[in-house]
Amino acid sequence: MLTITLESLFVLVFAHWFFDFFCQTKWMAENKSDSWKALFSHTVIYSGGMIVTMYLYSLITNGLSIDNSIFFGLITFVIHTLTDAVSSRYSRKAYKVKKYRVFFNIIGFDQLTHIVQLTLSYVLLS
Q1: Cα 23 from Cα 41, distance rounded (Å)
Q2: What's phi and psi for 18, nearest 5 deg?
Q3: Domain map (residue ranges) of the chain
Q4: Reported pTM
Q5: Contact 50, 19 (CB under 8 A)
Q6: Contact by Cβ (8 Å): 126, 68
Q7: Is the dihedral of CA 60, 65, 70, 72 positive or negative?
Q8: What's the distance, CA 83 to chain centroid?
Q9: Rounded-to-integer distance, Cα 116 and Cα 93, Å
Q10: How far is Cα 88 from Cα 68, in angstroms, rounded to an integer?
Q11: Tens digits of per-residue pLDDT, 86-116?
Q12: Residue 117: which residues within 8 A CB-CB, separation 6 or more?
């Protein structure tokens, strides 16, 4: 059975919010849908932050090893990049034509995908 503590889930979700929203610059947010440089800038910062967070959290909880923290970050980088490459392009199109319900559904599914990936990766590597 795959399990995760509430504390670990909270750390994942909080770190996700911090690195996906707070650390994303306006330039990254506005350009990641049509610029690989902007998208990679966002996902490198995001994934690097998640590696550091998971490693520091693991020092306290004996969770992920340094190797697994790095592997967690690499998995996160690949999945986050692919997810945002698709979701940012479709959400931008929906927003431009004022299909706001579609826009927010895409953003919501994007966030769901990120949380599922983070949780599964963490559980499988810990």
Answers
A1: 11
A2: -60, -50
A3: 9-19+33-125
A4: 0.91
A5: yes
A6: yes
A7: negative
A8: 9
A9: 25
A10: 29
A11: 999 999 999 999 999 999 999 999 999 999 9
A12: 75, 76, 79, 80, 83
**Residue 11, class by beta-carbon neighbours within 10 Å (0-12 exposed, 13-18 middle, 19+ buried)?**
buried
Token reading at 22: 């707070």
Which token pair is 68?
């697994």
pLDDT of 3: 87
Spatial contact of 21 and 42, defined as CB atoms under 8 Å apart: no
Residue with tokens 């996700």: 16
Q: What is the pLDDT of residues 5-47, one digit of tens each?
A: 999 999 999 999 999 999 999 999 999 999 999 999 999 999 9
pLDDT in tens, 66-83: 888 899 999 999 999 999
Scanning the structure block, which residue is given the tokens 């927003």? 95
Please state, in angstroms and rounded to a whole number, the distance separating the CA atoms of residues 109 and 7. Answer: 23
